[in-house]
Design a protein that fits this description.
2 copies of one chain form a homodimer. Chain A is mainly α and 209 residues long. Helices cover 76% and strands 0% of the residues of chain A. Chain A contains 10 helices and no strands. The structure holds a DNA duplex (30 and 30 nucleotides).
DNA sequence: CCCTTATTATCCAAGCTGGATAACAAAAAG
DNA sequence: CTTTTTGTTATCCAGCTTGGATAATAAGGG
């Protein structure tokens, strides 16, 4: 591949650490509440450096969110042989992987919620740039899975919000879960247990009456 | 009842409007992001007045949250004859009412999420003072409904977070829903449609394979 | 050995913060 | 009808944080 000098290599590393620090800080405090100084401190660099790498706070936010969604696309890519599975197994397999993604990157749900709580211009940007395309795909998959009897015949947006919110909730709200249930949801055993529970609730259970 | 003078009456009114304005503003911006001045402006009063009615910002927050949970208890009280319904009907009836509550008071989920995103001291206070008691009750009900086959045999905290998050999500995230799906979830028809969808998904559907 | 550039150190003007104090107006009490 | 109480408003303030600009620095690359 391209030979990377020490210079360029370090530059990319600091850029990446700024991006992740920005994600965490924006997720925790929201756009206005997260100061450039705090982000820099979190990334272990000097705050002026952020202005050097990114035009301004707004651009930093967009860069961070773009990084977030690109990473999601990578990590959520279907594994080898996925398409050969029967639909019901596809659904279970996908949902389990999605739960793990939510657990490992709680900042994703958090940062999106932060913007949605204020109906910002940035939210509209994110919807247009990243969320809408994802929903587009989700719609198609939902449509197929609905015909296969995986999902019931309910509106698409209902499916999307039921699935995504219940997969994200305990990890997005990890502190609340810890304080109220005493459960630490952030370890592999618990994550899998929750995935099992969710799959059971959504796919393998109906009321007896 | 107690005779209320004009004075006392107006005082309670402004107090109430400050509380609701505080709820909305805290929900939108979080504790630090919501300034006393903005809350006052939202309530249509002078900002010094807040200091007069409430000791300080912290106490205002607690008063607002207490008001929130007390109102929830009132509005979510089971209707006449609820206990005589068969369990499956109880579950459907309760869930529908809960969806309506979430739709009419999206600030509830929003304000709790705000605090949970930062793991604040206030979150711990709210958990101890209000959330834990609610969970206590939810545990008991879940236990009974689990034995009746309404809920599958999965951990309590999983049930709680699946139900509550999926009931709250589209209303808490109303702006995102509007921008991405073009649906305005905040009208009665849509609320009932979502309640139907959720009841179907959770109670009346399982995968066919 | 010099030039480029990634990084750091100061500095600044502006805005907003929570809260204190003083003025005011109208209801309640006498 | 006057006086007192009290709910409400108008100013004021010291202090902190903010995003961003500018100047200094140090180390890599040619």
């Amino acid at each position: 591949m391209t030979e990377l000098g020490v210079r360029e290599r370090q530059k990319r590393e600091t850029r990446a650490s700024i991006l992740q620090a920005a994600l965490d800080q924006f997720a925790e405090r929201g756009f206005d509440g997260a100061s450039i100084r705090d982000i820099a401190k979190r990334a272990g660099v000097f705050h002026g450096l952020i202005k050097y790498h990114f035009e301004n706070k707004e651009e930093l936010w967009k860069a961070a969110v773009s990084f977030l969604f690109e990473r999601q696309a990578t990590e959520m890519a279907n594994p080898e042989g996925f398409d050969d599975l029967p639909p019901a197994e596809q659904a279970r397999n996908w949902l389990r992987r999605y739960v793990h993604y939510c657990a490992h990157h709680p900042e994703h749900a958090r940062i999106m919620v932060q913007e949605s709580l204020r109906d910002s211009e940035r939210l509209r940007w994110a919807v247009k740039e990243h969320i809408a395309p994802v929903h587009e795909i989700a719609r198609d998959v939902s449509s197929r899975w609905m015909q296969a009897g995986i999902y019931p015949a309910i509106p698409y947006h209902a499916i999307i919000y039921i699935i995504s919110s219940s997969a994200q909730a305990p990890f997005m709200l990890a502190p609340e879960v810890r304080h109220s249930s005493g459960v630490d949801v952030m370890n592999t055993a618990q994550i899998d247990a929750y995935a099992d529970a969710l799959i059971t609730m959504l796919f393998d259970h109906k009321i007896k009456d």
